[in-house]
Design goal:
41% of the residues lie in helices and 17% in strands. By secondary structure, the protein is of the alpha/beta class. Strands 1, 2, 3, 4, 5, 6, 7, 8, 9 and 10 form a 10-stranded mixed β-sheet that branches.
């Protein structure tokens, strides 16, 4: 019988050796069967490394929290919920979405970077991963060292929209109106460094426009004022505003996509309207804290890519003009590095700073 002093927990946890552990059994076989019996009785739960190894193999062992660094109502939530719904089916545990806005996404990113529960993820974004590193002098997280890229989930074309009362039907007329009233018109965004902010600053830069920026704490609050006519214009991800465009509550004057969208065949791209090569696409990817066990990260990468490319997810995203991607961690990491270089120049030239 094993010495009770070597076992974790009370010595009464195992008072007799199982009958199968006889003295004449081979040492290796005896050890193997003892571990099986002890594991079944819960005796190994306290041994160093045992729980971690088992948790990795069986990950996830409980509900998974997917943090979205923005307020409800935007493209980020649509992508996150589509992903969470499918992952819940394949992982065998509930994956739930938690919105945690503020600080241009920095609050949520820094919290997840420090998470050690192995069951917290975050929705990475063009702003938090590619823009904030150049907009802030010091970040409370490192987008490369603190996170493991899992997969690029979706690309979302930015749509340039105006309130229907604004007397413009296309981008050319909008530019002419803004130039006739420099500094007197305003556009809204989900906050400094948000995709909508970048999209409008990018347009302002190429078209030489002077229009005031009004930052909000998320897409939802911004849309409330835009729909009410308290803002003249905005650039918003397609999923969040497609319903309002189709209902005539907003007018789309251009798309930031390379080609016209099947959902809006009559709306020309920015490139078509005098700015060749112009493209503005938001993107969202799944990231985990850097301490997520390798086996768990591999499993999550495979399942999340599968989830976003499933028929139901594609249909859900396509309805809102979003493109499902689902690539490998290495491909996502390379994409982030490429986007960082792209937006570094825009941030510096437009002098985009925090609130």
């Amino acid at each position: 019988m094993p010495d009770s002093r070597l076992l974790p927990g009370p010595a009464t946890a195992l008072t007799e050796a199982p009958a199968s552990l006889t003295a004449d059994a081979p040492p290796d076989d005896m050890r193997r069967r003892f571990l099986q019996a002890a594991s079944a009785g819960g005796l190994l739960a306290g041994l160093p490394g045992w729980a971690t190894a088992q948790g990795t193999t069986n990950w996830p062992t409980r509900s998974v929290r997917l943090v979205v660094p923005f307020a409800p109502g935007g493209s980020s939530e649509i992508v996150a919920r589509a992903t969470a719904l499918e992952l819940t089916k394949t992982l065998g545990q509930t994956v739930y979405v938690e919105n945690k806005p503020g600080g241009s996404g920095n609050i949520a990113m820094s919290e997840v970077a420090r998470a050690e529960d192995q069951h917290t993820l975050v929705l990475g974004h063009i702003g938090t991963l590619a823009v904030n590193p150049y907009m802030y002098d010091k970040l409370p997280y490192d987008p490369i060292k603190d996170f493991k890229p899992i997969t690029l989930l979706a690309k979302v074309p930015s749509l340039y929209v105006v309130h229907p009362d604004l007397p413009v039907r296309n981008l050319k007329e909008f530019i002419a109106l803004v130039k006739s009233k420099p500094g007197r018109l305003s556009y809204g965004s989900a906050g400094n460094g948000s995709a909508g902010h970048l999209a409008m600053e990018y347009l302002k830069m190429v078209a030489d426009l002077f229009i005031l920026h009004v930052p909000y704490r998320g897409t939802g609050p911004q849309l409330t004022d835009l729909l009410a006519g308290r803002l003249e214009a905005a650039s918003v991800g397609a999923p969040a505003i497609m319903q309002f465009i189709k209902a005539g509550k907003l007018r789309c004057i251009a798309t930031g996509s390379k080609e016209r969208l099947p959902q809006l065949p009559d709306v020309p791209t920015v490139a078509e309207q005098g700015f060749p090569g112009f493209e503005m696409t938001q993107w969202y990817g799944l990231c985990a804290p850097a301490n997520l066990a390798p086996a768990a990260a591999e499993k999550l990468a495979a399942e999340s890519a599968k989830a976003i490319k499933s028929g139901s997810s594609r249909e859900r995203l396509s309805h809102d003009a979003a493109e499902a991607v689902g690539n490998t961690p290495a491909q996502f990491a390379a994409f982030i590095a490429q986007e960082q270089q792209r937006w570094k120049a825009v941030v510096h030239r437009a002098k985009i700073r925090p609130d």
